[in-house]
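The instructor's notes for this session suggest beginning with a concrete chain rather than abstract definitions. Hand out the sequence below and ask the class to guess, before any prediction is shown, which regions might be ordered.
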Amino acid sequence: MYRVEDKFNCGAREMYCLQKRLCSVLRSDFNENSVDGYSVSSLYFDDLEESCLADTVNGDRIRRKYRIRIYNHSFDSIKLEVKEKLDNRVLKKSKNITRQELYKLINCECIEEVSAMDDAATLFNLAIKTSGLRPRVIISYERKAFIYETGNVRITLDRNIRCSRDVKHFGESDILYDLLRDNDSVLEVKYDEFIPDFILQLLELGNMQQTTYSKYQICRERYQ
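After discussion, reveal the predicted structure:
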């Protein structure tokens, strides 16, 4: 099902205050490997016509992003993801892939798939064959995430967002990243049908503004 996804511009002071509040009430995400959370690295793909970027820039109601994601700089879990968005609602199709399949996709080669059109591998393969899907940019950041089961609420605080065009070496430790001068932190709030009032109160700081922030768009524009 599609989930609501709201984003807010959030500075260092707001991040600190929110993390203090949320830590006392909500449990942390299972990916966490320190009190500060965990690291996320994603390799984003786009086609020859840059359709994913154009849809985001134009603010199209229906958008799709293709990416491969790892956590804490480890290949123990490699997620192949296709993220579909309708206005501020998102639907993510995900599956685990091997390191060998990762390298095949980086080289614009198809991987093994199941006979289902909503399978992430099927969608990746189709885009490679029909529109020249290929890797474009690596985006990394540190994330502190909180979960509340009722309403399937997930709140993430993303900091130190940075990017690299060294897509062939995705996941390796010696990649050189370019830092964003602005927009290097964001608050994301995701939930199914509703969010409890007490969580909304925890998030109320008075000076945060909702935004259509896109890490992919900002990082791609960093190189244009």
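Then share the key points. Helices lie at 12-23, 51-58, 99-106, 120-131, 197-203, 215-221. The chain has a mean pLDDT of 92.
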